[in-house]
Amino acid sequence: MAKKLKEYYNQEYCLFLGHKIASVYPPFDTGKFINLVSQRLEFLEFNDRQILIATALKACLPESYEQTLSIFIRILGPEVEGSLGMFSEGWWLWPVGKFVELYGDTHFEPSTAFSKELTKRFTGEYCMRPILIRFPEKTMRLMLEWSKDEHQRVRRLASECLRIYLPWSKKTDVALRHFDLYREILSNLRNDPDKTIQKSVANNLNDLYKADPLKFEQIITDWESPDMTKACAWIIKHASRTKNKDAMCSSCEER
């Protein structure tokens, strides 16, 4: 039987993470950290495990949020090459991202800077969601910059964190309320050769169709042309899956 995702985040993992932090921050009390998680960890589902580990980290790290991020930066390790491996290589960083998600929403500059580094090793959209909600326009303008970043994982993050219905996250309508910026960000990415970015943009648009079909059509109409790139054509096709399904259902009902 395949190992469930939650089972990777067990006591052995916490010991690994504790030793990793202590190697760059000797005052870290790994024993205290293990005691804080050990009694409840095995009874929790995936997200609750992440929350438990993140809250235990907070109890064992400096009160200063920025000082804690400086410790996390030192354990991130090298960037992952290419667009693959964000989960196979960086999976152990999930509770670190959860820490930023839980405690970083009032710290715009340090949290966004850290999320940018984290996504080069793992993924950063969940860190960015609370920041997006608290600082919508400021975050959207930063994502506009990131949509032109030289690093493909940063460009993907510029799209992925804006999704209206991001899995494992609460719905947000920031994209609808700041639609012109949202459209510009996705337009910057519509011809990107990276497949993970194409999927992210397509999923964004599929979410948009579910929330506001008219806004979806505005973007698709603007992008469609006889000479559009293969990347753009693939995005439009993949983005239209719910629309096409709805059309098929309507057609069947009319028969």
Structure report:
The protein is mostly helical and 255 residues long. The chain folds into two domains: 63 residues; 117 residues, Serine Threonine Protein Phosphatase 5, Tetratricopeptide repeat, CATH 1.25.40. 65% of the residues lie in helices and 0% in strands. The longest helix is centred in the last third of the chain and has 17 residues. It is elongated and about 60 Å long. It starts with 10 loop residues before the first helix and ends with a helix. The mean pLDDT is 94.
Euclidean distance between termini CA atoms: 45 Å
**Helicity level:** 55-70%
Count structural domains. 2
Form type: elongated
- The CATH superfamily name of the largest domain is ARM repeat domains
Strand tally: 0
Number of helices: 15
Estimated share of beta-strand residues:
under 5%
Structural class: mainly alpha
CATH topology title of the largest domain: Serine Threonine Protein Phosphatase 5, Tetratricopeptide repeat
Q: Give the SSE order as H and E letters.
A: HHHHHHHHHHHHHHH
> What gyration radius follows from the Cα positions, in whole Å?
20 Å
- Largest sheet descriptor: none
Overall pLDDT level: 94
CATH class of the largest domain: Mainly Alpha
CATH architecture of the largest domain: Alpha Horseshoe
Q: Which residues sit in consecutive blocks of at least 5 with pLDDT less than 50?
A: none
Protein name: DNA alkylation repair protein
InterPro entries: ARM-type_fold, DNA_alkylation
Pfam family, one: DNA_alkylation
